[in-house]
Amino acid sequence: MSDVKHRTLSAKDTAVSIETTIDQLDTNLQTTTGNIDTVFDNAVKALEHRRTELRDKSHALAREKKKRLENQLDGINIHINIMEDANELSANIATYGSQTEFLFSKDTIIERLNHLRDEFANSTRYRTTTTISS
Question: Is residue 45 part of a domain?
Fold first, then answer.
């Protein structure tokens, strides 16, 4: 009987030990899941912050590039208008002017057209190989 009592006490001690381990396991599980949630929450916040930074930077770069392209377009349109005016002037002189007026204006017109071509090529980084010769 003492042997059975001893085994009963030993079994009760083992049961208490298992219950304590189960309680510790539940506590450890809660702590671990809390830590996991904290780490992932921090990672999500960092990713959201980085996404916002990248989006803002992308928008800023796009605005800057758009502004630069619009300025280039404005400059090209100005050069186009100037060249059209110069072409119209030379056409009018060639059509309605006398031979003397045409010969007198020829060098000035050629010089001005070459200057406009060079200015246009330099401002748009466009190089042309054609030249107007006298």
Answer: yes
Is there a contact between 134 and 110 (Cβ–Cβ < 8 Å)?
yes
Residues 45-55: tens digit of each pLDDT: 999 999 999 99
Residue 129 lies in a domain: no
The mean-pLDDT minimum among 47-51, 77-81, 114-118 falls in 114-118
Cβ atoms within 10 A of the Cβ of 75, count?
Answer: 14
Is 10 a residue whose pLDDT tops 80? yes
Please state, in angstroms and rounded to a whole number, the distance separating the CA atoms of residues 51 and 28.
34
CB atoms within 10 A of CB 110: 15
Residue in this structure with the two tokens 């071509």, named with its chain if needed: 117
User: Number of structural domains, the chain?
Assistant: 1
> What is the H or E stretch that residue 66 is in?
helix 2-96
Instruction: Provide the domain limits for residue 31.
Output: 2-124
